[in-house]
Amino acid sequence: MTVVERPRLAHVGRPVARRDAGEKLRGQAQFVGDLVLRRMLQGKVLRSPLAHARVVSIDTRAAEEMPGVACVLTGADTADLDPYWGHAIKDRPIVAIDRVRFAGEPVAAVAAEDEATATAAVNAIEVEYEELPVVGTVDDAIAPDATLLHEGPVRPGLFHGLGELPPRDGNVCYRYAIGRGEPESHFARAELVVEGEYTFPAVYQYAMETHTVVAHVERDELTVWSTCQHPFLVRAELADLFAVPLANVRLIVPYLGGGFGSKSYTKMEPLTVALARKARRPVRIQNTVDESMVTTRRHGMNCRMRTAMTGDGRLLAREVDCWFDTGAYADNGPRVTATGGDAAPGPYRWDAYRVDARCVYTNTSPAGSYRAFGATHLQWIGESQIDELARRAGLDPLDVRRENLCRPGEELRAGGKPLDADLVGDVEQVAAVIGWGEPKREHVGRGVSVGLLAAGAHPVSTAIVRLEADGQVTVLVGTTEVGQGPRTAFAQIAAEELGVDVERVTVRGADTRFTPYDRSTGASRSTTIAGLAVQRAAIHVREQLEGIAGHAGLDAATYPDLFRQHFGLAGGELIGRGGVAPTGSGSYAEGPVFWEVCVGAAEVELEPETGMVHVRRTATAADVGRAINPQLVERQDEGATLQGLGNALFEEMVFEDGLLLNDSLLEYRVPSFEDLPDEMTCVIVENEDGPGPYGAKGCGEGALAAIPAAVVNALADAGVPMNELPLTPERVWRRIQTLKEEGTWPR
Amino acid sequence: MTVELRLNGKEIRDEVAPERLLLDYLREDHGLTGAKRSCEVQVCGTCTVLVDGLPVSSCCTIVADVDGRDVLTIEGLADLPEFERFERAFVDHAALQCGFCTGGMLLTIKSLLDGDELTNVGEIRRCLAGNICRCTGYRGIVEAVAELAGVVA
Fold first, then answer.
1. Beta carbons of A666 and B125 less than 8 Å apart
2. Scanning every residue of chain B, which has its alpha carbon at the shortest distance from the alpha carbon of A21?
3. Residue A482: which residues within 8 A CB-CB, separation 6 or more?
4. By the 8 A CB rule, do B71 and B49 touch?
5. What topology is assigned to B78-149 in CATH?
6. What is the pLDDT of residues A554-599, one digit of tens each?
7. Structural domain boundaries in chain B
8. What structural domains and CATH numbers belong to chain A?
9. Burial of B30 by CB count in 10 Å (0-12 exposed, 13-18 middle, 19+ buried)?
10. Residue range B2-73 in CATH 3.10.20.30
11. pLDDT tens across A432-463, in order?
12. Cβ of B142 and A29 within 8 Å?
């Protein structure tokens, strides 16, 4: 055992109270929907009731004549712009132009004095549609005679990060293929091969605060308050769309009421800005839940996978083909597909593998980011095959993982970052928590799962730290507070480097006019990358103080004297700059910034008569390098665990011919207090092996990928292997009946 | 129509449209934005306020129905002496993240504590199932409420 010599830290590594708790507990925290501007209008969107249609005509006269209506926006109002947007692929008009491609697509929008008037006006708009064939599923989309959703050249977006985009290939939006060696030869002679077809459902992120935007356009200046996670990327897309300089677009992001990826990149901002531009007054658009459900979602996916192993437990090869349903527009589908492709082989030592991942356009609502995307889709499939191979070989699934998991420093993907975590140690810890190897009663099963998520996105962040004459510190950083706690973590980091109390540090929200550039808030990147920028900015301030003092090792009590000494009066300000930029070309191919660990374990109890799966115990490994705030780390893993249980057990958006059938929280169930496992444990692992401040690396997503996989493996251990999520009682019960017919139940 | 109610301890008399929703009335007419709109079908609990001490979904309640009654919002709870205990428990157990559900959650908890309904952890989970939190995974909230209710988590 190595003993790590740690510097003594005063604030980092401690369960410091959330800096935003007081405001939030008192109902004083400001969200976009709480904002009221003078002369602000309410916007309402007319959405297509059809999944695929030609828009023959739109008659807005009755709506425009209604008292209280300021204006009605249609595609004709965007004729002076190049109105197509999309950070990955510019495939999406601000408001429908001649055609709608999903039920829920904006066809027109109204700005009115109040919401009731806006709603009445929306209902007064008459649209004539000519229905087109509906491409409702991935299978429909890739059929040889499929109707094409998009035509013409593929137009790359500003932030696709995908290298050279190939020409259009039918309804395939993006394809990501990786491989090594020749899997075919291994399958031909392997003693054990498991193969199967799997489906993963579309899922709704349900950030409780729906997408909300307030926009104000004055001349060529755009001011936008938005529930967005990535203000700088939205700023760039708006500047591009409305043809104004970057600095003329101001994005302001107060507290966000959850995000989980649903507020990543651009969503409702172009439409709201276009409406405000026409109205010449501030406009607010606030989605209802059913509107947010069709604004973005998690991709449904079909997958074919096979895995080969020797009889004594050495993994040989894996082949994966998967098709992600990205809906009518790309949104973040290409990145989801690539991340899924990277996750598909799993963190094992293969002789050969081949992965071919595609995302496909269909006439359903667009799909984008949701916490641990790609990894959540693939990990349960790959890990269930590892367990099935272990069962057939008569081996302990944990031993198969010990034998085959990559070790720290080993190459995972050709040219990519080598493994930066101790996965064997992680999985052994979570297995121990759920009582691995202990006797268990009938219908109880246990499972573990191991995976990796390419994390960090693009490593560009900057921060400014201001030290005032009274010893107060302000951190300016573009990271958004979605609930995950960056304002608290950054305050701890700045306090640590400047030797001041955490209470003296204030971290405010993003305002692109004042906060410096931060690429995005997602991909578990903020503590690691923006946190490093904050640390560097704070060190920069400290160096200036040391310069004034002429020596290091300063006590914060001396700062006021140093200010007087330097500025000649009790005023002035010291400003520190910190930045992180990629080394090399910074492309995803060289990445990721770090591999986020997705390791979990579950113990379930099955009720065979009903198919009910009860989750008794879960454990996740938060392999964070260094926990800046261990309490917030635990809470991140617990939140991800509950979302993982929702994804595993009951969450599913049901589409029929492109129409969403369960578009309310009555029919789409998310986990409640009653879905808590009997025991839920987060094991924090601190090996100081991350690229962030104090050896930190990101967390908060891995558990969501790990938990469905662990639950699926636990249920298989209890006798019911499944190839379809969610594990609803009906599905599990039906599977048990099939197993009975096959003579394999009870096992 | 005219309504008279007690709002956060103050007697109020207002003219409102008969169909005016309590949530809009609180947020727009009184600037009490701590109650939030989300599911609009009484599942999520983020719009919860207390009417005569009992939790109510303000997004599905008309102002006319609280005529003559006592309404407490999170802003009103924050002014009560007992709020300090709530705050301490929620901070100590990191029982909040984005904060969007927190106001409604605290009001439901107050109502349950006032009714002495939380006698064990199972009851806490069952009684709070009408308030969704998508961020925390619930454990911190259960711990905080167990402490407030004096039961073992």
1. no
2. B91
3. A229, A256, A258, A259, A260, A263, A521, B98
4. yes
5. DNA polymerase; domain 1 (1.10.150)
6. 999 999 999 999 999 878 999 999 999 987 654 555 679 999 999 9
7. 2-73, 78-149
8. 21-30+459-581 (3.30.365.10), 33-134+210-256+263-293 (3.90.1170.50), 300-457+589-742 (3.30.365.10)
9. middle
10. yes
11. 999 999 999 999 999 999 999 999 988 999 99
12. no
Which sign does the torsion angle of CA B145, B148, B149, B152 carry?
Answer: positive
Spatial contact of A340 and A370, defined as CB atoms under 8 Å apart: no
| Strand pairing class (A92-93; A84-85) | antiparallel
Annotated catalytic, A701? yes
Separation CA A526–CA A538 (nearest Å): 16
B140: enclosing H helix or E strand: helix B139-149
Cα–Cα–Cα angle for B103, A44, A252, rounded to 5 degrees: 55
Return the pLDDT at A373: 98
Contacts of B85 (CB under 8 A, 6+ apart): B148
- Residue A164, SS3? coil
B103 close contact with A: CB closer than 8 A: yes
Q: Where are the beta strands (DSSP E) in chain B?
A: 2-7, 10-15, 48-51, 54-57, 70-72
| Residues of chain A found within 8 Å of residue B153, distances taken between Cβ atoms | none
Active-site residue identified among A269, A319, A481, A701: A701
Residues of A in contact with B27 (CB under 8 A): 34
Task: Say which DSSP state A661 is in.
Answer: S
Contact with chain B for residue A668, Cβ under 8 A: no
Compute CA distances B106 → A135, A406, B92, B95, B145, whole Å.
Answer: 46, 46, 15, 11, 9
pLDDT at position A590 is 62
CB contact burial A710-726 (16+ within 10 A = b; e otherwise): bbbbbbbbbbbbbebbb
Neighbours of B1 (CB within 10 A): 11
Q: Which residues are paired to A726 by β-bridges? A: none
Give the Cα separation of A37 and A40 in Å (integer).
Answer: 5
C-beta separation of A202 from A325 below 8 A? yes
Preceding omega of A183 cis (within 30 degrees of 0): no
Instruction: Decide if B80 touches A, using CB distance below 8 A.
Output: no
Tokens of A78: 């965007």
- Using the structure block, give the residue that is written with the tokens 């100081």: A688
Lay out the sheet containing A612-623: strands in order across.
Answer: A444-455, A594-607, A612-623, A679-685
pLDDT tens digits for range A376-423: 999 999 999 999 999 999 999 999 999 999 999 999 988 888 999 999
Q: How far apart are CA B40 and CA B47, in angstroms?
A: 9
ipTM for this model: 0.98
CB contact (8 A) between residue A209 and residue B34: no
Average predicted confidence (pLDDT) for chain B? 97
**Amino acid identity, position A78:** T
